[in-house]
Amino acid sequence: MQKKKKKWWLMLPKCFNNTTTFSSFSVSPQVIMSRKVVRTSKFRHVFGQALKADQCYDDIRISQMTWDSNFCSVNPKFVAMIVDASGGGAFIVLPLSKTGRIDMSLPTVCGHTGPVLDIEFCPHNDNIIASGSEDCSVMIWEIPDGGLISPLKDPVVKLDGHSKRVGILSWHPTAHNVLMSAGCDNVVILWNVVHGEAVVRIDSVHTDLIYSACWNRNGSQILTSCKDKKLRVLDPRKGSVICEKDKPHEGSRPVRAVFVSDGKILTTGFSRMSERQVALWDPKNFGEPLTLQELDTSSGVLLPFFDPDTGIVYLCGKGDSSIRYFEVTDEAPYVHYLSMYSSKESQKGMGYMPKRGLEVNKCEIARFYKLHERKCEPIVMTVPRKSDLFQEDLYPDTIGPEPSVEADDWFSGKNGAPILISLKDGFVATTKNKEFKVIKSLMHSKPPASRSRTPPPQPTKIQAPSSLL
User: Fold this and answer.
1) SS3 217
2) What is the pTM of this model?
3) Which SMART domains does UniProt cross-reference here (predicted)?
4) In the beta sheet, which residues pair with residue 336?
C-alpha cells in the first residue's frame, strides 16, 4: 500500500505563520529576541585621525630608555618630550604652534645628571613642569611663555628625598602645589612644592617596585599597583592602606590602574598565558572583578587614559601601533568596546591633552600626542556631528585650572572638589594669575621627612607667567 505523502506546507519551520500563502509569513518573537541588539551610545562612531605632516613635530630624538612612562606631557600651551641626551638627562618643551622640523640645536631643559624618566605639567599653572630622573631627584621648572631661548639648567625647586631613581610623578588634581613622586626605592612622597618639603613619606607599604600611582578625582585617595602583585587604595595624608586586592591579574608582567567613575578602578595587566587583559573593580567588594576581558597576546604594557566627562577609557600600548577605546558604564558588562585607531608605526610614548585644550567646534573629545622614533604626531578623536552648534552632551562642565584648596590646608585635612568650567565659548581664563612662591633657603637643601610645625621663613616671590590657562 502506497504511503500517503505529507503536505509540504506542514513541513515548513515553525517561524512561518499558519497562513494561506507561502509569500506572507512572520518571524516569531523568540527569533526576534535572539538577535544581537546593538547597544546605543553617542560614542559608537568616535574615530581617530592623525594630523597632517606639517602639523607634527619632526626630527626629535625621543629617549631610548625602556622605562614604562608616557615620555610626553602636554597642556593648552606646550608639549614636552623626553629626549636623548649625552652626559645627563634632558627634555624639550615646545609651544604647540611650533610644528614642522625641529632644529637639533633647540634649547632643552637639562639640569638632571641622569636620564629623565617622567615629566608632568602642573594642572594649575601651564608654565610649571615637574621632572623625575635616574639621579634620584625631582625638579620643578618654569617655562617662559614663548618657549626656551637658551638651555634651562637651574630648576625653580629641587626636591631630594628618594634614594633610587624617580619614575612616577603626579600633581594633585585640586590642591595647589602638591606633588606625588614614586621611586624605585618603593617609597611614595607627597611634596609641598612651595616649601620644598616632603610632608608625607609612605615607605612601609610597598614591598617591591611601584608600577603606577594616581589620584582620585578630588585627591582624597591614592591608587597604586606594585610588583608584589597587589593593588592598593591609600589614604595619602595618613599613609595607611584603605583596601587592597591581591593579584588583580594572574600574570607577572606590570599592572596599571586608574580611578574611573563612581570610585571604581580600571586595571590593565596580563593573564598567566601572557594575554593582555582589562578589568573593572569595585573597591567596596574587591573579591571578584565586575568584568575582565582578554584583548590580545602582545607584550607591551597598556597605558590607560580615562576621561571622566565622557566615561571613555583609552588604552595605549607601549610598542603598539593602535589605540583602543572603551566606554565605562553602570550596566553589564560595564566596559564596552567602542573601536580602535590603527596606524603603521609603533608608539614609544603618549601625551594626553586636558579637555580645556581641545577644539570644541570640531567635536574633538580627545587628543593624543604619539611619540615615534623621530617625531611627535598629534591624533585627534572626534564624534561625527552635522550641526555646527555647541554640543552640550559632549562637553559637560570640565575641570579647570583653578585649584580649590591650598597645599597647607590640604595637608591639614581639608579636601576640595574640582572647580569646573564651561567649554561653550572656548576656554577663557577668568581667574587671576597665580604667583609661584618658593622658600629659597630650602630650595637646594634636603627636605625633612616629616611635616614641620614651625612657621616657614618669608617666601620670595617669583614672577608668574603672563597668562594662566
Assistant:
1) coil
2) 0.84
3) DUF1899, DUF1900, WD40
4) 327
